[in-house]
Amino acid sequence: xxxxxxxxxxxxxGLERLPRDRYEVASEISNPDAVLVRSADMHKMTIAPSxxxxxxxxxxxxxxxxxxxxxxxxxxxxxxGANANAVKELVIAGMLLAARNLAPALDFVKKLDGxxxxxxxxxxxxxxxxxxxxxxxxxxxxxxxxxIGVKVANAALELGMNVYxxxxxxxxxxxxxxxxxxxxxxxxxxxVSKSQLISVHVPLLDATxxxxxxxxxxxxxxxxxxxxxxxxxxVDEDAVIEALASGHLQQYVCDxxxxxxxxxxxxxxxxxxxxxxxxxxxxxxxxxxxxxxxxLETGTIRNSVNFPEAQLPLLPGKTRLCIVNExxxxxxxxxxxxxxxxxxxIADLLNKSRGDLAYTLVDIDQAAPAEVIQExxxxxxxxxxxxxxxxx
Length: 392
What we know:
- By secondary structure, the chain is an alpha/beta fold.
- It folds into three domains: 1-82 and 275-307, Rossmann fold; 84-269, Rossmann fold (3-Layer(aba) Sandwich), CATH 3.40.50; 313-392, ACT domain (Alpha-Beta Plaits, 2-Layer Sandwich), CATH 3.30.70.
- 32% of the residues lie in helices and 21% in strands.
- It contains 13 helices and 16 strands.
- It has helices at residues 12-15, 66-72, 84-99, 102-110, 116-126, 147-158, 172-177, 188-194, 214-219, 237-246, 278-298, 331-340, 370-377, and strands spanning 2-6, 23-26, 34-37, 53-56, 76-77, 139-143, 162-166, 183-184, 197-200, 224-228, 249-254, 267-269, 319-326, 346-354, 357-364, 382-388.
- A seven-stranded parallel sheet has the order 8-7-6-9-10-11-12, sandwiched between helices.
- Strand 1 (2-6), helix 1 (12-15) and strand 2 (23-26) form a beta-alpha-beta unit.
- The longest helix has 21 residues, at 278-298.
- It starts with a strand and ends with a strand.
């Protein structure tokens, strides 16, 4: 029986993927095997030694101490792309809000007063203040062509926009999804200089903090619009506020209200609604629950932010060893030697690495004696060893 601790309300559609005859799921549970989390801040938590994996029902993992988990040999899973359509729709809505000055126009309507004649005159006299622009023919630059960025780029192209994209780490899978009409920018600066609107879709890392700054905003065409539905710190708020005041930027649209932005008439801020649809929450929960279950039951790793992808079919009758270790030479040799000394035949083996971590799946024909597990655990650099017993 596996124990799963939930730190937030996880969609029932995801929890249903964990059979109750094999999984105990609760918000308060002793010695959990894994954690399912949405937005809870795990940096301030004491994470139980029994934890073997953490699943984030969403894309970003900045609320999880990923580096600390890596040192413990604990994979952190996320759900990339599960909320992509929800975010894409909000980005398109943000572009339309900015293009047609809808936020101040709606505020103007709320303040209207008087009888029909007075209100009609006020509308006719006031509407000229909200003249906007149409999206077809405008140029959108999309920074980050992951699941969300690709959907945004494709949707903008279908709206008749010119679209440039930039992502030096774009995956083959996402490249297949990208419309061939999206033009390639050579760098962030190249993209910014070509764009009237910019939408950022990158994770918050040291390299992306302040990615859109004063220097890059100056490269944009005057009257541009910046959209940020990724993470707040990716855009330099002070630089944006200065550019809005000077008129170089027309509007800033984001999902991250702040004291600095509040009350600025050229800022449209939504309360972190990117993935806030029932469909997105269901999709994220289902995806990450499936990944946790695969890992706990077979050792398979898909969509981990700190571990390599590792998929090896587990055949009936085989015992599987899941070994996490530092990515240093001769690890597989030492593991194989420990098994050979006890006449344990290796039926299959997969070794993958990512950065400083390596992950090895070893399938053997017999049960694994306790002493061989102890010997492998004692190898310098081994962080964790888990045994998955043979099944018929």
